[in-house]
Amino acid sequence: MLTFAFPGQVIDANCYVIAPAVGEECLIVDPGIGVEETLRELLTEHRLRPAAVLLTHGHLDHVYSVTPVCGGDTAAYIHADDAYRLKDPLALISPPLLAMVEQQFGRKATWKEPEHVVDVRDHERLSLAGLDVEVLHAPGHTEGSVLFRMPSVPDGVSDQVDVDSTVISGDVLFAGAIGRTDLPGGSDAAMQRSLRDVVLPLPDTTLVLPGHGPATTMDRERATNPYLQGLTA
């Protein structure tokens, strides 16, 4: 599985490009702020064609570039509970935060709702770009936060760590941390349930690609992440 990861220009939200191989269709996950040029270069260099955009949730730093990426038959896939956020995510953040985003971005933020949006639901299985993806609903950071699980790992990773599957965790689980729950639509109680019922049951051999920060594994997080301690699946 060919996998590329790079941070957006603002708040360092990770964007992922995943494909079976060079010259094939690909999935773009969480195209955030200021990622368009890097995406174009990656797609051109590796002759990749976007088949779909997967969104772990609807926050601006994860969806800002979804409309430029989508077009034609390329749809944006998002959980039904977060689909409303794609109407205008700029209106859902506070003026001071928007001002900070625009200062880092170096230009005024604008938004155009994507034309083709597909609602996904818990445990739905998608077959896109030659890849199998399972949707795991994990509310808490937002109402519609999800993990995308795949039964394969990026090329070369299994030679370095003992992993046999991948989960893109968005802002639910980070290396050593979890997503915040104090923003509109967040819920600490929902996050605790998601950590207990969705995250903890993942096998130790799962590679975790988070929405911010470095990759990790479930084996490492189960042993060291303080937010998973004391929880019982």
UniProtKB/TrEMBL annotation:
Pfam families: Lactamase_B. InterPro entries: MBL_Glyoxalase_II, Metallo-B-lactamas, RibonucZ/Hydroxyglut_hydro. The keyword Zinc applies. Signal peptide: none annotated. PANTHER family: HYDROXYACYLGLUTATHIONE HYDROLASE GLOC. It comes from the Bacteria. This is MBL fold metallo-hydrolase. It comes from Knoellia koreensis. The keyword Aminoacyl-tRNA synthetase does not apply.
